[in-house]
UniProtKB/TrEMBL annotation:
Name recorded for this polypeptide: Uncharacterized protein
Length: 232
């Protein structure tokens, strides 16, 4: 015999509720398939879940739309910062800049390799350190580094930082929208459970071939076990 199972996805929840709401037979006084109190809970539950799902979809699309742009800005900022650090270290090897100035940039005097800039957090952290360090050295009378200049490095870091902060804000909006959907799921499932219980109770006296067909018309979802024959 097939068994009943509540929907697992929001799309399935909405479909189950809409099936009931679109069925005119369920509203007739003569049939009284479902109690009016349950029916009165269906429409608000459907509308709230539909609105929440749409809001989540819009937030997620906005977040995904900016992902490619974010990756490009991050690559550019990392490239300019990495090149600047390499030029800085080479200048120190040639004796043009004293190695003791490494501490201004957040490096130990023994450091000779570019730090990892793969994550957004490390890129922003090292970007700020290097920009601040170079500006501090220049204020002390040091000669500027060219190709790239610290101004160009700072510009790319600032552009990426702004985009990163905006993306973080979009991610928070997406997370809040998802949380709103998740909060609604238990309420919708409770409505569906009450609704399906009453629908099945109404058709309980009918033979299986009639009972399952009528319940399906009103949105009740049945599943067959593996290798079980689909009789109804």
């Amino acid at each position: 015999m097939p068994y009943r199972r509540l929907p697992k996805t929001d799309a399935a929840r909405l479909k189950a509720l809409k099936t009931v709401l679109d069925c005119n037979d369920i509203y007739t006084v003569r049939n009284r398939i479902v109690d009016w109190q349950v029916l009165n809970r269906c429409r608000p539950a459907y509308d709230r879940l539909l609105t929440a799902c749409e809001q989540y979809r819009v937030c997620m699309m906005a977040q995904k739309r900016k992902t490619g742009q974010m990756e490009k800005l991050q690559r550019n900022a990392a490239m300019f910062l990495s090149h600047f650090i390499q030029v800085l270290f080479l200048a120190m090897e040639r004796g043009e800049i004293k190695p003791r100035y490494k501490q201004l940039y957040g490096f130990a005097e023994s450091d000779a390799a570019v730090p990892s800039l793969k994550s957004a957090e490390s890129l922003l952290e090292w970007g700020q350190k290097v920009v601040d360090g170079e500006r501090e050295r220049l204020r002390g009378g040091g000669l500027p580094i060219y190709n790239p200049t610290i101004g160009k490095v700072a510009t790319h870091i600032d552009i990426f930082r702004d985009a990163y902060n905006e993306q973080r804000l979009r991610q928070r909006h997406t997370a809040a929208a998802l949380a709103a959907v998740q909060r609604l799921r238990p309420e919708v499932d409770a409505v569906l459970l009450d609704l399906w219980n009453q629908i099945e109770a109404y058709f309980a006296s009918e033979p299986p071939e009639v009972r399952y067909a009528e319940c399906r018309k009103l949105g009740v979802v049945y599943y067959y076990r593996r290798k079980e024959p689909h009789l109804y």
